[in-house]
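Predicting holo structure, arginine bound.
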Amino acid sequence: MKKIISIIADKMSAAFVAAGYEEKFASVTVSNRPDLCQYQCNGAMAAAKQYHKAPIMIANEVVAKLAGEEMFSLCEAAAPGFINVSVSERFLAGYVFEMKDAPKFGLEEAAEKQTIVVDYGGANVAKPLHVGHMRPAVIGEAVKRILRYMGHEVIGDAHLGDWGTPIGLIITELKVRKPDLVYFDPDYTGEYPKEAPFSVSELEEIYPYASKWSKEHDDYREESRKAILELQQGRRGYMALWEHIMRVSMEDLRKNYDNLGTVFDVWGKESDAQKYIPDMIKDMKDNGYAHISEGALVVDVKEETDTKEMPPCMILKSDGATLYNTTDLATIVERMTLYNPDRIIYIVDKRQSLYFEQIFRCAKKTGIVKPETDLVHIGFGTMTGKDGKPFKTRDGGVMRLSMLIDLIVDEVRTKMADREMPEEERDRIAKQIGLAALKYGDLSNQSTKDYIFDIERFTSFEGNTGPYILYTMVRIKSILSKLGDAAGAAKPSAREIGADERELLLTIARFADSMEKAAAELSPMKICQYIYELADRFNGFYHANKILTEPDEIKKAEWIVLCRMTLNILNDCISMLAFEAPDKM
Ligand code: ARG
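Done. Tokens:
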């Protein structure tokens, strides 16, 4: 369906032309003075310069051409030359009823369907998911679903870190602790055991220990560096150990991502890209893009217009080892080979933005991607405690993601202590509300900003929160269930429409605008803003009218439609944000 703003823009264009002015001046925006009008056109001010005429005169002429337009309840010129427009309630109601019967509420899917890869996991094997992994998982899942709703082909990739430094450290530490393991015997040629020589909790304890130790001991660090190199060169025992590490921790990671409702389409790993490295490097060398600098192989990515320092992109270290960069570039080669995407979107901490700038430039320059392939980094900020520091456990340790989820779910459960329902049901609902609180608390902020994890506020049933949205949905579900399976009206009648109802209609009608903005700006925050407004308008409408006891059956039937529309739109939106609503709370 055409958006209301576009319908108005078309009429405005025709009126400008009919009045003798160029069409380009007729652009329409949502009013920034909603107390005066719903939409506005400021084109008369710009046209005034070109036509050497007072803006108010132009505005008046255009308004005169629009006289008698049935869709407008207001169309007037205002000093110094604004054209203020509001649409009539009749028109609005008709529009909303048309949305009801259209797929996706009349949203027009993207005209150009793209194939898009979203890289948003980034967890590392052998390390438990911690709070730092929450943001990419939550933001990435939402971005993926928003783009998919717009009709794009979207592939969500976990891109697990299973290669490089951490693995070297684990191998080194295992060798210290269990030197007799067959994996360390260079002369061993037999089969390796099926069973891993460690448990997942052992693994999780080994990594931080080894990481700390290596920072204080040069020989240990050197040892682990050598281990990676040997792994990269395919040493059998190390490969077998690495496979054990992978299997044991992947299982655990899957469980944790499942628990959060993050659903990857592809469980890609850094190691998957390794096989693309030799050809990629050969190409870079053959085509003269890569050169040796201080023993390392690098690609210059500086541009003349740079105002900031732009170091070259390192491809191989002087000892021949590959790096994080090499893997990311090879992963692009892999993705181009497998999916040929139009766009690759990375949801990674904003502290890596210079890094991604280097990678993107290098990929463009060396022809790994096409000139028109869109490489995007959404750099997110940090979730902090009230002290402004990264969120930690009470004793200052790294907080696991599972612990964070428990924390917020427990808070909700406490709030629901007085509800009469079986324990099991309370647990299930508390989990749904807790996840909504957590995700909405995150997504309602601009991704690039840091924000405070405020459990009190996030779990509040009032204000701009996830639970408030759910509460509104539960309210609507309850209304609809009380009204039985009343069919709702097929068409709006010619009755009087009150101000609160009009505001609700107007907000419903703006669904497509909000979706398009959210998709264009890759901003789940826009969806949050929209559903908060929609929930708020619904509650305004609810309090102004007695839906359940309304004696006028025609009115009631139309209101049922509005209740259903609101609920269905909220439902689609929250499933884009990857949470769900209970039936009661
Ligand atoms: N595993 C990395 C880390 O822990 C994050 C990976 C982000 N994604 C990427 N394509 N580089 O820092």
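The chain has a mean pLDDT of 95.
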